[in-house]
Fold these 3 entries.
Entry 1:
Amino acid sequence: MSSNKAISHESGVKKRALIHHFLCAYVGLSSDFKRSNGDRICPKCQRALIQKNNDWNVVGTFPPKNYSPKAATDS
Ligand SMILES: [Zn+2]
C-alpha cells in the first residue's frame, strides 16, 4: 500500500491559494474549502471542485506577492 502523502507542515505563516469557483462565483482561500475524498468542497454552494480551469481556478495567493502596506494608508 503506497499512500502518496505530499502534505507539508501546516505550522507557521504560509501562502494560501485564492480559489475562484466559477459555478457560484465564490472566491476564497484554499483553506476555506473543506476536503472530502480528495476533492475540495465549496463553502458557498457545497459542490465539489472538479475540473480546474473549467469549474474553478486559482486566481492568486494570499497574502498577495505585490502586497504593499503603503497603499492602504496613502490617501
Ligand atoms: Zn461554489
Entry 2:
Amino acid sequence: MEASGNRAQGDRLGARLQPPFPMTQPVPHAVARLRAERLARSLKPFVARGSRAERCPHCRIQPSHCLCAWRPRVSSTVGVCLLMHDIEALKPSNTGWLIADVIAATHAFGWARTAVDPALLELLGDPQWQPYLVFPGEYASPSRVVETVAPQPGRKPLFVLLDATWTEARKMFRKSPYLDSLPVLSLTPAQLSRYRLRRSTRGEHLCTAEVAALCLELAGDSHAGAALDDYLDAFSQHYLAAKRRLPLDLSDALHQRLQLYR
Ligand SMILES: [Zn+2]
C-alpha cells in the first residue's frame, strides 16, 4: 500500500498508469544475472541507444511506462536455454529477457567461439531435459532435423535458442561443436513477426521471444505461449510509448488479457 501511495503522488502520467495490482520485486532471473555479469566485464560503459533515459531495473522500460505489474504468472514444465551473443543481454530491446520473465526454467549463457561454460554442458546432459536446438532446418544435415516436439517419457523439452542477430546466430550454429549432437527443431511460422523494435537484417525472421512462444505451443503449452506473445506485445507497446512519451491505454484488450495470467 505504501508503494502505491507513493506512486499515486507521482506525476500525472505516472498516476494514470497505476497498475491494477500490487507491484512485486522479482528475483533476478538468468538473463538479468547474465546482464550484470556482462556489465561487470565491460572495459568501457555500455551505451545502448536511448540508454540515457532512466529505466526500471526489472522490465527495462522507463518508470512512467513500467511493465512489471503486467508480467504473466504461468507455470510451465518447458525449459528454455538461451545462448546469448556478446552484448545481447545488454540491449534494452532484447526479448530473451521476456522469456526469462515468463518461463521459470529459463537458463542463459553467454556465447563465445573459443570456450563453453561447463554449466551449459551440464544442463544439456541433464537427463530430466530433452534439448532441441531451434534453428532453420536448411542449415543442418537432414538427419538432425525434426519438426515436432516429442520428448521421451520422463523428460521435459528444453529449447535451446540462439539469441543474436541472424548473422551472429548462423555463426554460433556453425561454431558450437557441443550443439552438433542435438536434434534441430525447424520452425515454419505462419504468422508475421510482431516484433517491430529491432528487426534483423532479413525482416522475415522472428524475434527470440516469438520463437520461444511457438516452441511452447509445439510442446503443448499454448497457454504459456499465448502469455508470452501477449507479454511481448505489451513490452513493444510500453517500450514505444515510453520512447515517444505517449500515454498508454491500460484498459485495452491486450491488458485485459494479461490480467488473466495473474
Ligand atoms: Zn518495471
Entry 3:
Amino acid sequence: MKREKPQIYNKYPLWIVLVANIIMILGIIAGAYIMFRLHWITGIIYLVYVVFLEFTVYKEGCRDCYYYNSRCAFGKSYIAGIFFKKGDGKNFTKRKTSWKDLIPIMLGSIIPMIVGIALLISRGFHLLTLIAAIYPVVNWFVINPILYGQLSCKHCKQGSICCPALEFFSKGKTSKIK
Ligand code: SF4
C-alpha cells in the first residue's frame, strides 16, 4: 500500500510550536528545580548552561537553517533572527552530527537526573524531585519520539533538503523526507 507523503511546512502551525516549547520548558523547569534544591548556586549555573546551549544552537544551527527568522517547529529560528545574522544554508548541510555533539545537550538532563537521585537517597523521598528526575527518561523514550518523529522532523523543509541530525537519528537511512 502506498504511503502518503507527509506535509512539508514552510511555516509550522502555531500549535506545534506551542507543544514543542511546553515540552522543552518543562524539561528546563525539571532540571532547574533539582539543581536549585541542591543549592541556589548550582541552580544558577544550570540556567546559565541552558542559555549557553540555546545560543550555541541559534549560532551554529538556526542561522543557517531554511527557517531562519521564520516559524520552525521550535520557534528558535525567530530568536536566532534577533541575535544573529543570516548564515549560509550550505553550512547547515556540511555539518556532521555524532554522539560527541549530543553530549553537552545530554548532560543538561543527565546531571540533574543524577543529582535528583542523589537527593532522594541523601535527603529522603520527595515526590516533586522524583518526578523531575524521571522527566528526562519519559522525554527521551516517550515524548521525543512523538515530538521529533511525528510533529517536527517529518514535516520539516530543512529536513527535506538535508539535515545531519535527522540523518544521524535515522541511522543513515536517508536524510531526505520524500
Ligand atoms: S529535520 Fe528535525 S532536527 Fe533537522 S532541522 Fe528539521 S526539525 Fe530540526
